[in-house]
Amino acid sequence: MRLSIVDLGTVAPGSTETDALADALATARHAEEVGFDRLWFAEHHLSRSGASHHPELLIAAAAMVTSTIRLGSGAVLMNHYSPFKVAEMFQQLEAMAPGRIDLGMGRATAGPVIDAALQQNRQRPSQVDHQQQVAEILAWLYESFLTTTRSVATR
Question: Whole-model pTM?
Answer without folding.
Answer: 0.84
